[in-house]
């Protein structure tokens, strides 16, 4: 009798533990994604409302179209590249929307100022202290690979020449990827330097860095993607060519 009681108790315990594990997996794989997608859509909607109903700090002199050689030469940035708005982003707030055509026509994520865990549940995070979109230096952005909407799940698919486009309410910034994703350790902070040496850049330019976790379901390493500013255009001109088709 006692053995049967022990067996039954253990069986019930296993069922309970199994149920908890299943619920946790559902939460991680599904519910965090639902909440993150809703939060990201809310951030983008808020930005679009803000841009459409109120003045946005515009770019300075030299705004307009541009193409340049901000790649491995690192010397000459996009011609006519506008200066970023004078007002710095507010910590914890979204200030731009990123588009990566390689990830699908509907892929659009808000970029928030800061990289804290709570911020990365609502979108991509801009490393404080790195450059602004379109500015000389390195505009560095972090995002989850998995969970919380899986924003950078497909980073391994990026290839040289792929576009990464940003809209800050006044200007479209089109960056072009320079090399396949680079794998490194989490403490390799040089990847977001103003001139990240491991990217092959030899001097100052207008660069972009994307960072996410590696492996896909772990965090022992990081995947890094570097790009250079290829072109700019006023938002009033409509969507850039990189987002067409």
Automatic annotation (TrEMBL):
Coiled coil: none
Positions of the UniProt region annotated as Disordered: 49-91
UniProt cross-references to SUPFAM superfamilies, sorted A to Z: Sortase
Example of a GO MF term: hydrolase activity
CDD domains attached to this UniProt entry: Sortase_E
Alphabetically ordered keywords of this record: Hydrolase, Membrane, Transmembrane, Transmembrane helix
Gene3D superfamilies assigned to the protein according to its UniProt record, in alphabetical order: Sortase (2.40.260.10)
Compositionally skewed regions (Gly residues) per UniProt: 57-74
NCBIfam families listed in its UniProt record: class_E_sortase, sortase_fam
The name this protein goes by in its record: Sortase A
Taxonomic source organism: Streptomyces syringium
């Amino acid at each position: 009798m006692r053995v049967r009681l022990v067996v039954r108790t253990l069986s019930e315990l296993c069922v309970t533990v199994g149920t908890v594990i299943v619920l946790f997996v559902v939460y991680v794989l599904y519910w965090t994604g639902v909440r993150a997608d809703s939060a990201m859509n809310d951030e983008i909607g808020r930005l679009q409302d803000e841009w459409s109903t109120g003045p946005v700090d515009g770019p300075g002199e030299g705004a307009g179209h541009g193409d340049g050689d901000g790649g491995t030469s690192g010397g000459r940035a996009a011609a006519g590249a506008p200066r970023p708005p004078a007002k710095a982003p507010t910590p914890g707030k979204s200030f731009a929307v990123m588009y990566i055509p390689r990830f699908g026509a509907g892929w659009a994520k808000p970029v928030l100022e800061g990289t804290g865990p709570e911020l990365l549940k609502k979108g991509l995070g801009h490393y404080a202290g790195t450059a602004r979109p379109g500015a000389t230096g390195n505009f560095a952005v972090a995002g989850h690979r998995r969970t919380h909407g899986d924003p950078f799940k497909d980073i391994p698919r990026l290839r040289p020449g792929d576009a990464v486009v940003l809209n800050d309410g006044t200007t479209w910034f089109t960056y072009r990827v320079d090399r396949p994703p680079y794998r490194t350790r989490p403490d390799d902070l040089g990847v977001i330097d103003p001139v990240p040496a491991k990217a092959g850049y030899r001097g100052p330019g207008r660069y972009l860095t994307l960072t996410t976790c590696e492996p896909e379901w772990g965090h022992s390493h990081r995947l890094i993607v570097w790009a250079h500013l290829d072109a700019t255009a006023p938002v009033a001109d409509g969507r850039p060519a990189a987002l067409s088709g």
